Amino acid sequence: MAPLTSIQMLLIILLCLASSELGADRVHGQQLDTRGFISIDCGIAGDAAYSDDSTHGIRYIPDAGFVDAGAGLNAGISPPYNDPNMAARYLTVRYFPPGSGGRRGCYTLRPLTPGGKYLVRSSFYYGNYDGENRFPAFDLHLGGERWATVNVTAAGTAYVHEAVVVAPAPADYLQVCVVDLGLGTPFISGLDLRPLAAEMYPEADAGHSLALLSQFRPAAALGFNRYHFWPAGKPFYRYPFDRYDRIWQRFGTDFSWTNITTSDTVNTSGDVPSLVLQSAAAPAMNGSRIDISWSSSGDPSMITNNMTYLLLLYFAELQRLPGDELRQFDILVDNASWNGSRGYVPKYLSAEAVSMMVQGSGHQQQQQQHTVSLVATANATLPPILNAFEVYSVQQLTEFQTNVGDGEAFVASPLTWHQRLKIALDSAHGLEYLHKSCRPPLIHRDVKTKNILLSANLEAKISDFGLTKVFTDEFATHVTTQPAGTLGYLDPEYYNTSRLSEKSDVYSFGVVLLEIITGQPPAVPINDNESIHIAQWVRQKLSDGNIESVADPRMGGEYDINSVWKVAELALNCKEQPSRERPSMTDVVAELKESLELEVSHAMGYYSSVTTSVNNLSATSVDLQTDHAEASDARQQTVIELGQAGNDSETRIGPTPR
Question: What span is annotated as the signal peptide, if there is one (predicted)?
Fold first, then answer.
């Protein structure tokens, strides 16, 4: 079996953007605790949830409900790295070798508030779990965008990556993926999601995420750059001291500095914990400046020096100064000042945050080092202080993410037939890629309009690979697996036999095509109490040979009749029983291209007549005998395709929640 290449896998993950609203009855749902936290210990057994004493009871749960069934394997850390005094989440991992769901692993975190702001934290501790003592490197993706590179250089070192991100509306979830680069097997130890207040980190918005800089400093325990300046003995502060569970680590010992502390509460307006700010660093031995540097080369995630950094400095005066004393300093970045950065005076027991953007040079091969300097002014009698700081890289999201909507938009929007065809063709290309270009092939298993993402230019991509199944034997015609998918789109043959093939995706795509044509949902209401499946509704309408009776009236009749007929025929063929009678996605792409050509010719005025009557087309394409036979068992079919009429397309079938 030829393994899936890293390039192919990266392309697939880039399609997996967090932007579509899924049904609520998914195994990933109902995992928030009372604080709104999701706390996952990756690799523990399904019944091994526990309360973490170090965080005063944050409950960590297994990861099985957040990844597709069968994706990845669990392992424990090997001696001597399995120190029982470590946080429990570092004692196990889930890893994703070839043949266990593909050489990537994706977690779906939900339910989220669309447009809400969140902190996402991922933790990695190799600990020689595989006994090979080979240090891997792999990429970390957040919502389809590359977030970081995890570059393990020591078996006993923990690597923690944090990001602040806005959940793109109308999504109610985010996906975090570890992606193979051919440099070792991806793995993960822990994954946390924390809701943030909307006013926090305003630099994170629908177009930008913030990735906490990962750069190890000599005296710091972890690589992430969020620091406090307490003396030795107080290494970390997190929940409950920080109600958002941000981790503040001690900067470490610098013999050119001293510490100023207080037991008095610092007014912080709730964003930064008072306890974090009750200690500050100051120059020792009558020094007059503090310098702190960082570099792009210190973070393997920085693939370009054209990087924008967000620097957040936190100040609060901790000493009540007599009238003849003055603490005043300039704040410089790379020896440059800006408006308001000179002559800064911290306020007594009142915290202020000073933020600034720092731009890289853009030179790809040049190491970029940046320095923030706090320099006492000539009038100052006291040295500068610094209570805490954070450094983030600002990551711009693609237009595809920032303007994204889900494919249900065309069900409720007056799009033209040409636009709808283009959406259908783009989506078909995506499924064809999964089925034919990937080695081994991938079956999506949850094709539906909500999993088709649209850019501002109505470019369509397939998303949500949470149920994707890998064919470990690329020459097999099917694989036996527990049925999973969304009712209304779920292939009845797959549901009844548990035999999954690429034709199951074809069936689901046929339902999508019918929605594109008609503007109707999978469950079409026929009265106040009853709904029928969209395929049955279309067949009944087409029995009169009138395509206008099914075409979405919001298109205003502006379409080539033959083009619409051709897609209707194709959609119904995609739902044929048995599945071997259905076209492949390659066939679907070819048919949609022909339909698009017909529509383009019609729009340009070059296609003013048809060579075949509509009645002939309908008679050729729609087998009403078969339709009648299938409709005779409509109620049984409705149980499979719809579940309970009205909300059926929101219901998912899948592994039992754990």
Answer: 1-24
Whether the predicted pLDDT of 257 surpasses 60: yes
Instruction: Please say whether the beta carbons of 282 and 257 come within 8 A.
Output: yes
Question: In the predicted model, is pLDDT for residue 2 greater than 70?
Answer: no
User: Please, which residues have CB within 8 angstroms of residue 623's CB and are 6 or more apart in sequence?
Assistant: none
Instruction: Considering only residues 631 and 234, tell me which one the structure prediction assigns the higher pLDDT.
Output: 234
Q: pLDDT at residue 639 above 70? A: no
Task: Name the range with the highest mean pLDDT among 45-49, 314-318, 405-409.
Answer: 314-318
Cis (ω within 30 of 0) for the bond into 300?
no
Residues in the chain: 658
Report, as an integer, the average pLDDT of 458-481. 70
pLDDT of residue 463: 82
339 Cβ contact partners less than 8 Å away, ≥ 6 residues apart: none
Q: Which residues pair with 106 in a beta bridge?
A: 177
Omega prior to 440 cis, within 30 of 0:
yes
Q: Which residue has the higher pLDDT, 639 or 188?
A: 188
- pLDDT, mean over the chain: 80
Integer distance in angstroms from the first to the last C-alpha of the chain?
32
pLDDT of residue 472: 56
For residue 647, count CB atoms less than 10 angstroms from its CB and return exposed for 0-12, middle for 13-18, buried for 19 or more.
middle
DSSP 655: S
Measured distance CA(609)–CA(594) in Å, rounded: 16
Q: Which DSSP state fits 264?
A: S
- For the chain, domains (ranges, CATH) are 6-204 (2.60.120.430), 226-396 (2.60.120), 481-653 (1.10.510.10)
Do residues 385 and 281 lie in contact, with contact meaning Cβ atoms separated by under 8 Å? yes
The percent of residues above 70 in pLDDT, for the chain, comes to 78
Q: How far is CA 355 from CA 22, 313, 314, 503, 605, in A?
A: 37, 6, 9, 54, 59
DSSP string, 198-253: TTS-TT-BTTEEEEE-B---TT-SSSB-EEE---TT--EE-TTTSTT---EEE---
Conformational region of residue 504, where left means phi above 0, alpha means psi within -120 to 50, and beta covers everything else: alpha
Give CA–CA dist 512/533, Å, rounded.
Answer: 12
Q: Burial, 622: exposed, middle or buried (Cβ in 10 Å; 0-12, 13-18, 19+)?
A: buried
Q: Which helix (H) or strand (E) holds 141?
A: strand 137-142
Hey, what's the torsion of the CAs at 583, 589, 591, 596, to 10 degrees?
Answer: 160
List the single range of 53-57, 114-118, 399-403, 415-419 with lowest mean pLDDT.
Answer: 399-403
